[in-house]
Design brief:
alpha/beta, 8-stranded mixed β-sheet
């Protein structure tokens, strides 16, 4: 082979090699710890003032940031919404607050009317009165970590474009005041369309089971956890049932409103909730998060949900009580 032929074929060989390696490249690029750090730092910065729903400037600044990330990911609008914003009024102390969930989708290729939800709440508790040196409850783990994760998953799946079912990404508001955002969403969607919901809550630290692990709330209420465990067999990742049953976590997060409607809706966590001393404190800041472990968790989610996303597995519904 002469030098001219080598020079001609070499670029073609490189292109083919990259195409064959596509999925590995996307995984490593999209889930790099530095990419996660960039988003979680922005959402939990002092400029966001703790993202309280009672601080209209701060909560809307956070919403606009998430919208910009959904746009970058190329997500489409959900159902009949004219934008990424699902707006509603929340009344507290005789005052109306205009709030919004942020919703975007990747349409399914073969089962577009069947939805898989990835969600996380973006509000937090704002300013803590009485604190002298630092009064901002930044909410890095609770729950900038979860929002960062669904943004990166949206980027990944949007680049893949292989999902049989429609993927819905929701950043809920008003979780900290009783789950008002997820309750509103649940009342304005047909629950029969939702095949499964994976809510991400406080996923910025290593779980009690070690690196590359997470736990799922409400394991006994559907077979979602068992399907995920099956998909993780032979990998370094492991999923465990919620080790804190006394905390009632299944009923305390944004999965609950849809679970009450029969949707196999669960929350994935890594936080050691019985030991975490930054929960709802001004010390919940991004330097305490383990973005390398978060990166592994995203790969964990991609692998564990694969057969649900591609239509191979359909989880059992949660029985109404």
């Amino acid at each position: 082979m002469n030098n001219l032929t080598r020079l001609t074929l070499f670029p073609l060989f490189c292109l083919l090699w990259v195409s064959c390696k596509g999925q590995t490249t996307i995984t490593s690029d999209f889930f790099k710890p530095k990419n996660l750090e960039e988003i979680v730092k922005a959402l939990s910065s002092d400029e966001m003032r703790g993202r309280s729903v009672f601080d209209s400037v701060a909560i809307n600044q956070a919403a606009e940031y998430i919208i910009s990330e959904f746009e970058k990911a190329g997500l489409q609008y959900f159902e009949n919404l004219p934008s990424y914003s699902q707006e509603f009024l929340y009344n507290a102390n005789d005052k109306d607050y205009r709030l919004r969930n942020i919703v975007g989708i990747i349409p399914g290729k073969t089962k577009p009317q069947e939805y898989i939800l990835f969600s996380a709440h973006y509000d937090h508790i704002g300013i803590i009165k009485g604190e002298v040196t630092d009064s901002i409850a930044n909410g890095a783990d609770d729950n900038a970590s979860g929002v960062t994760s669904i943004i990166q998953l949206a980027r990944y799946f949007s680049a893949q474009q292989e999902n049989a079912r429609t993927l819905v990404f929701v950043a809920f508001t008003a979780e900290e005041v009783g789950g008002k955002g997820s309750a509103y969403f649940a009342e304005n969607v047909d629950p029969s369309k939702i095949v499964a919901m994976f809510n991400l809550e406080m996923v910025g630290k290593v779980s009690k089971f070690g690196k590359n692990t997470a736990y799922i709330t409400g394991f006994k209420y559907s077979d979602v956890g068992k399907i995920m465990q099956k998909n993780l067999e032979g990998t370094k990742y492991k999923l465990f049932p919620d080790p804190y049953p006394n905390q009632q976590l299944f009923f305390r997060s944004d999965n609950a409103p849809l679970a009450h409607k029969g949707v196999p809706a669960h929350t994935l966590c890594t936080v050691e909730i019985d030991k975490d001393n930054t929960y709802h404190q001004v010390t919940d800041e991004w330097p305490l998060l383990d973005t390398e472990n978060m990166s592994g968790l995203l790969k964990f989610i991609v692998l564990s949900t694969k057969t649900i996303i591609n239509g191979e597995d359909t989880p059992q519904r949660i029985k109404s009580k």
